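User: Design a sequence. Structure:
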């Protein structure tokens, strides 16, 4: 490595990545007059979740429960995966509550720069001239993985910080004095995102074993292994404040179910071709793929702009070292779905390629090393074969029938042709540069930057097709203005933009991290979706022309959950209680009949009895009877009798009226929980449409009482007469996580001080 007084190539890396990212995102920021939107998950989740989390963190009193994620959810469980551990999110806290859409584009620019810089420091360890690390770092930061995941804002945090773990590992392999850096890198990656961190740990184990394979019989290998394990445990301990409660939460999440099935042993033809496409062609639009699969959200792209997999393949053919072995191992894992499931511990519904950013940095490292010794490689031969392969792939997909039924495999011919053309021309341009002896740093850097900007800008444009930023912002600003009109009721909406950007809470949401018990409630109505909760109509585009509520406003399921207030742009509706105007658009809040959040019942029924009813009558039955099962049955006989299950859809509002009459009094809610009073002439079951969680504690007149899990929600037994009920929420594992984090930071500080002291006395 060339030693210099200052690292000028680091400056080049920063400036190049900054200029490139600014050019890409700056254009769309300008087009949106400062606001930046993409589509689907980004608009409906990333922007709204940031607003909701910010509001919860700045709430008074500060608590651990948020009311506007679904029917309510743990702050940590709901947002730990998305943004609570993100340094970029915490930067946004410094600005106003309406500012996140105006910050998102600039935060994206910052993420790309950070990803470039961290990758630069890692790749720099292996090249003799650090200028080649600049190219590798840009390939990593602007890879197809980043591009195809543009709708997942939080994925880019993971990509930005992951190289630090590899850097720390490499430094400690050379000298154990760098252990504090490795520990901190583990802590940072763990707290940023627990799901990706688990993948990273598995990858690091594979990386280390292959890296040090020739020393595996040496006792120092095992000493290093123990050292890394202890350092890793300490780093995880420092992040336990978020990591521990998150692990407890996901252990009960539907996505944690086993995927260890025979069908996952090998890919079928379509999916295998899709994997190849993700390697050789630029990152595609996940919600609307160009070929093979109409839509796929598995993050299937590891394309390196300009180079693709070409130089990584050349490196593997020529060299016989650990990097070559790692490339081969990762390639084998890539083509077998069962091996890919190792990265998610054989859990989850899908086989993701969301570990491919780790493959990307290995490919980027190999590409940098080839560039540094370019004369040692047969560029023309390999590039010609590579370009020909892409051409054959393109022609086969376009002109050959997939099967006898001629099943459709091309969905966007123009985009597919453009992607193939870019990949082929990239290989040919490398051949031309080699032939004219210009395959040198400056020309290659220029081409790399151009290709990075082109592919990222192009796919971002495809993502944004049909997106109306101004219409979105009108809804966003309206949602920010919506207030809680009555604590006992919710807005009749599953539109995140309306119910998560301000104080309002809705009757459903577009999220995969709601309370696990909410899924149990949904299953009672045959809704088994993982990312959408009980919305009859949920539009992911969230454009101005979509239904404001995202639900059928008189659906009994919504009325049962307190959906009393409907947001509409129809000024002719009756019972308008609020009016708002945002960016020239007018919105009205209509009041309709709905059940309160808490009401008493005199009867109960079992789940098996409920499921015998037609799905459209189940919510009506639950307006009359609490769902009780198992050991709780014998405990409720003194408070309720068994329900006969007779219900009439024609009497829907009669049932709603009964719940209103039997509602609890003085219902108040905040981020710590909720409270109310009761005054019934006899003992009753009181049912709350608030998701059950082990973190809830309930007291009746100051004395702790048992909470009954009822249809995924909560019920309690209340004696006759006047009583006060108080529910407080504390995230399971959070207190222990705080203690573990504090102790771990103290140990980390002591360890660092000892190293400094030893260095001084030596």
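Assistant: Done.
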């Amino acid at each position: 490595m060339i030693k210099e007084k200052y690292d000028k190539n680091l400056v080049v890396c920063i400036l190049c990545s900054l200029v490139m990212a600014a050019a890409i995102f700056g254009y769309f920021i300008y087009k949106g007059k400062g606001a930046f939107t993409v589509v689907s998950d980004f608009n409906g989740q990333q922007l709204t979740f940031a607003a909701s989390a910010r509001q919860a963190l700045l709430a008074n009193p500060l608590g651990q429960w948020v009311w506007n994620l679904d029917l309510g959810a743990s702050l940590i469980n709901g947002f730990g995966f998305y943004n609570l551990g993100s340094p970029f999110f915490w930067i946004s806290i410094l600005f106003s509550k309406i500012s996140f859409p105006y910050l998102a584009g600039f935060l994206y620019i910052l993420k790309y720069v950070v990803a470039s810089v961290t990758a630069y420091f890692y790749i720099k360890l292996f090249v003799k001239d650090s200028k080649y690390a600049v190219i590798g770092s840009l390939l990593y930061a602007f890879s197809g993985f980043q591009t195809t995941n543009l709708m997942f804002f939080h994925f880019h945090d993971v990509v930005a910080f992951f190289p630090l773990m590899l850097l720390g590992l490499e430094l400690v392999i050379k000298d154990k004095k760098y252990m504090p850096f490795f520990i901190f890198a583990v802590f940072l990656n763990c707290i940023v995102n627990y799901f990706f961190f688990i993948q990273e740990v598995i990858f690091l184990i594979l990386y280390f074993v292959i890296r040090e394979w020739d020393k595996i019989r040496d006792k120092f290998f095992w000493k290093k292994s123990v050292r890394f394990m202890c350092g890793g445990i300490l780093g995880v301990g420092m992040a336990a404040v978020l990591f521990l409660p998150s692990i407890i939460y996901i252990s009960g999440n539907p996505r944690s179910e086993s995927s260890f099935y025979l069908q996952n042993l090998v890919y079928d033809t379509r999916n295998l071709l899709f994997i190849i496409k993700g390697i050789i062609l630029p990152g595609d639009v996940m919600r609307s793929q160009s070929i093979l699969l109409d839509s796929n959200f598995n993050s299937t792209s590891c394309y390196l702009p300009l180079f693709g997999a070409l130089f990584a393949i050349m490196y593997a053919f020529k060299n016989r070292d650990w990097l070559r072995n790692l490339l081969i191992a990762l390639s084998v894992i890539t083509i077998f779905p069962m091996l890919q499931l190792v990265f998610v511990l054989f859990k989850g519904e899908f086989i993701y390629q969301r570990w491919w950013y780790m493959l990307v940095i290995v490919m980027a490292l190999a590409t940098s090393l080839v560039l540094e010794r370019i004369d040692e490689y047969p560029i023309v031969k390999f590039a010609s074969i590579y370009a020909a392969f892409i051409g054959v792939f393109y022609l086969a997909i376009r002109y050959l029938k997939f099967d006898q039924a001629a099943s459709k495999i091309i969905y966007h011919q123009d985009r597919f042709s453009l992607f193939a053309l870019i990949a082929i021309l990239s290989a040919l341009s490398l051949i031309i540069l080699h032939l004219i002896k210009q395959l040198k740093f400056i020309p290659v850097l220029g081409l790399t930057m151009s290709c990075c900007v082109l592919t990222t800008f192009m796919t971002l444009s495809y993502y944004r097709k049909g997106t109306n930023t101004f219409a979105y912002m009108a809804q966003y600003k309206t949602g920010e203005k919506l207030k809680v009109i009555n604590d006992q009721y919710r807005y009749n909406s599953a539109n995140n933009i309306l119910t998560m950007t301000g104080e309002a809470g809705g009757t459903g949401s577009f999220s995969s991290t709601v309370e696990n018990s909410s899924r149990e409630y949904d299953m009672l109505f045959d809704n088994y979706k993982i990312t959408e909760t009980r919305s009859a109509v949920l539009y992911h585009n969230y454009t101005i022309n979509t239904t404001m509520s995202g639900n059928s406003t008189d659906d009994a399921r919504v009325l049962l959950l307190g959906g009393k207030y409907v947001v509409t742009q129809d000024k002719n509706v009756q019972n308008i209680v609020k009016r708002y105007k945002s960016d020239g658009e007018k919105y009205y809040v209509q009041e309709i009949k709905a059940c309160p959040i808490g009401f008493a019942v005199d009867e109960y029924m079992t789940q098996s009895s409920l499921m015998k009813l037609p799905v459209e009558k189940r919510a009506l039955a639950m307006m009359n009877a609490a769902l009780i099962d198992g050991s709780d049955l014998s405990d409720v006989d003194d408070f309720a009798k068994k329900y006969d299950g007779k219900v009439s859809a024609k009497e829907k509002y009669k049932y709603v009226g009964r719940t209103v009459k039997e509602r609890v009094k003085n219902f108040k809610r905040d981020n710590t929980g909720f409270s109310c009073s009761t005054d019934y002439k006899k003992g009753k079951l009181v049912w709350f449409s608030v998701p059950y969680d082990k973190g809830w504690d309930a007291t009746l007149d100051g004395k702790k009482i048992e909470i009954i899990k009822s249809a995924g929600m909560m019920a309690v037994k209340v004696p006759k007469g006047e009583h006060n009920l108080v529910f407080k929420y504390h995230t399971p594992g959070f207190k222990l996580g705080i203690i573990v984090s504090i102790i771990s930071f103290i140990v980390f500080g002591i360890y660092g001080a000892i190293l400094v002291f030893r260095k001084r006395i030596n």
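Residues 536-549 have pLDDT under 50 and may be disordered. The two ends are 27 Å apart (CA to CA).
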